[in-house]
Write a structure and sequence with these properties.
The protein is α+β, with helices and mostly antiparallel strands. It contains 20 helices and 20 strands. The protein has helices at residues 15-20, 25-34, 54-57, 96-107, 116-129, 144-148, 152-170, 204-209, 212-230, 257-264, 276-284, 286-303, 345-352, 405-412, 461-472, 514-524, 533-543, 550-558, 562-572, 580-590; strands at 62-65, 72-76, 82-84, 87-90, 110-114, 142-143, 184-191, 199-202, 236-237, 254-255, 268-275, 335-339, 359-365, 367-375, 381-388, 395-403, 418-427, 436-445, 482-489, 495-503. It has a 7-stranded mixed beta sheet with strand order 1-5-2-7-11-8-9, with helices on both faces. Strands 12-16-13-17-18 form a 5-stranded antiparallel beta sheet. Helix 4 packs across helix 12, helix 9 runs antiparallel to helix 12 (286-303) and helix 16 crosses helix 17 (533-543). It starts with 14 loop residues before the first helix and ends with a helix.
């Protein structure tokens, strides 16, 4: 199972340091036992600290997984904002980490990306300081001195090559003519849509360091197989004349990931630049995503004479003798669901029981977020719905996620009092002018159209925090409010929308109510709680031991024994203890 490496502002140099910032001995020991990278290093089980030892790696900023059945590694170095020394800062390339991990899963390969928690931390740093964290080095812009010194990215890439070679050797007989040192890297990047090209193939690094015949064969395989699955819908440029070739000049003293990969001994390395529209399409269309992954893997494995290691369904991606393009399989049954209230990605994952679910930024024009009903689960306050608006610039920002029919049925059980309607939403990130219209399902309050229920009580703080969490996944919410609107039905049948208040997130978690604080914890958990039910359960057991608000929780955590003593109180009262992860999240958000 891929192991998430966590994040930290600075990497400790001793196990004592790791324990001091909140990691338990059990976590460090467990990490030592399961980390695929650490296990490749000599002395990794030693108590003394090394650059890749467990206490450092457990809070490293990368997430990686070793290959399983194919000697392939996918990398994504640019999913966060990065400084480039004297050069302009590098902006994040959305979805590249997600695609690298998904591609690896489809072809049983490995991956190396920035961790999800580091992506979130990097966004928070950028928001606070108006620039990238200077302690994060751009993996695609490393100096020769860094490669020869202590670059954790490069060291991990070396370890992944070692595992790739183990995979190759394990599948070759002694009589097999294929070299046992065969391994390949696909370095995934994001390009703009400006040039009308959707896939740039960059092989400059290989042109400088590998036989011309091998480069030519690899280029031909990539061009043909990607062209077959993209089927004219997206454009591929695999020429050696475009600007995104994946290699810095020799005299620059800099190394791209492709150049680093060849330096470590990978046989093939290619920089794959994907347009934004193709990234969005693959993010939302699982079959297209899998087709592209298998096309890349098959092109590389065929070039190395290792097609027997390709996934069993890669045969469908073979190049047709007559050159005709193949048509991708249809997208699986289901629909997009537009979220505008508390259904953040973590909440949806818990509700529909799919921890791999993802969402994309989306917006709905011509509507306003209003509040109605009185939800006992959400503290007795109102909950969100949408009402048509006559305002020229009315828009509701939210997110869209693809749900299967089974997942949609599970979500229905949480949406009592709501009906489903089809709407046209626009996909596209904040500030993007390249918006794509897609059909989506939306949950609306009331039994029939044009009957938005009026507002009852104001929404609770925990519910507004849940909406804020959903929005900040994809939208910059710094200094922005959530408008609390009421829809008033007039006698002539025309709805009038009234702004009742503007709610701002306080920022300081210590000023939140206990229930709202629990929402913030759930949004950050690797396995989110099922909200709002679990929030009520957690708060009830804390109240049962005298911790009824945030100040009393702060006092309990800062008292002698801290979290361990609080858990002892819970167990003495007959309750289940609160997990280490939740306490670590609490410690982090309460100290910032």
């Amino acid at each position: 199972t891929p192991q998430k490496m966590g994040n930290a502002v600075s990497i400790p140099t001793s196990e004592t340091d790791a324990l001091a910032i909140g990691y338990t001995q059990k976590q460090i020991d467990d990490y030592r036992a399961r980390s695929p990278v650490v296990q490749l290093k000599e002395g990794a089980q030693s108590d003394s600290m090394t650059e890749l030892d467990a206490a450092s790696m457990i809070i490293a900023r990368f997430e990686c997984a070793p290959p399983v059945n194919a000697p392939i590694t996918f990398t994504a170095p640019h999913n966060i904002s990065l400084m480039r020394d004297s050069e302009p800062d590098h902006k994040p390339e959305d979805y590249t980490s997600f695609l690298a991990k998904s591609f690896a899963s489809s072809c049983s390969g490995g991956y190396l990306v920035w961790s999800k928690t580091e992506i979130e931390r990097s966004k928070a740093y950028f928001s606070q300081f108006r620039g990238p964290d200077p302690s994060n080095r751009d993996p695609n812009f490393l100096t020769t001195e860094e490669l020869e010194g202590s670059s954790p990215w490069y060291s991990t890439l070396e370890s992944l090559r070692t595992r790739c070679l183990e995979v190759t050797s394990g599948h070759l007989s002694h009589s097999d003519a294929t070299p046992k040192d065969s391994a390949l890297v696909f370095d995934i990047h994001g390009a703009s849509d400006a040039d009308g090209i959707d896939v740039y193939i960059g092989l400059k690094a290989m042109e400088r360091g590998r036989p011309a015949e091998l480069v030519s064969l690899f280029r031909k395989e990539l061009t043909g197989r990607l062209g077959a699955v993209l089927n004219g819908r997206f454009v591929v440029d695999s020429t050696s004349s475009h600007r995104l070739q994946g290699a810095w000049s020799v005299d620059s003293g800099r190394h791209t990931v492709s150049q680093q990969a060849l330096r470590t001994g990978f046989t093939l390395a290619v920089q794959v630049e994907l347009s934004r529209r193709l990234r969005i399409a693959m993010h939302t269309e699982p079959q297209l995503r899998r087709d592209v992954a298998l096309a890349l893997a098959s092109a590389g494995l065929e070039s190395l004479g290792l097609m027997h290691l390709a996934p069993t369904d890669s045969a469908t991606l073979a190049l047709p003798p007559d050159g005709d393009a193949l048509v991708s399989a249809a997208t699986p049954p289901g629909c997009f669901v537009f979220s505008y209230g508390s259904n953040s990605t973590p909440q949806l994952r818990a509700r529909v029981k799919n921890q791999a679910l993802v969402s994309v930024p989306a917006r709905l024009l011509g509507y306003t977020r209003c509040f109605c009903f009185a939800s006992e689960g959400w503290g007795g306050g109102g909950v969100a719905t949408l009402a048509p608006s006559e305002e020229a610039e009315a828009v509701v920002f939210g997110a869209a996620a693809w749900l299967s029919p089974k997942e949609l049925a599970l979500l229905d059980t949480f949406e009592g009092g709501y009906r489903k309607e089809a709407v046209a939403v626009l996909f596209g990130a904040e500030g993007s002018s390249d918006l794509e219209e897609r059909q989506a399902t939306v949950y609306l309050a009331g039994p029939k159209p044009d009957s938005t229920p009026p507002m009852g009580p104001l929404p609770s703080e925990e519910y507004l925090c849940a909406i804020h969490g959903m929005l900040r996944e994809h939208w910059d919410m710094e200094g922005k409010s959530i408008g609390v609107h009421s829809c008033l039905q007039q006698p002539e049948g025309v709805a009038r929308i009234k702004l009742v208040q503007s709610w701002y997130h306080p920022g300081d978690a210590r000023s939140l109510s206990l229930r709202a604080l629990c929402v913030e914890v759930s949004l950050r958990r690797s396995s989110p709680w099922t909200m709002p039910r679990t929030i009520s359960e957690v708060c009830a057991k804390l109240e049962g031991v005298g911790v009824g608000d945030t100040p009393s929780l702060l006092q309990a955590l800062s008292s002698a024994g801290g979290a361990e003593a609080l858990n002892d109180r819970l167990k003495d009262a007959g309750h289940k203890s609160i997990g280490d992860e939740s306490f670590l999240i609490l410690k982090r958000i309460l100290s910032t």
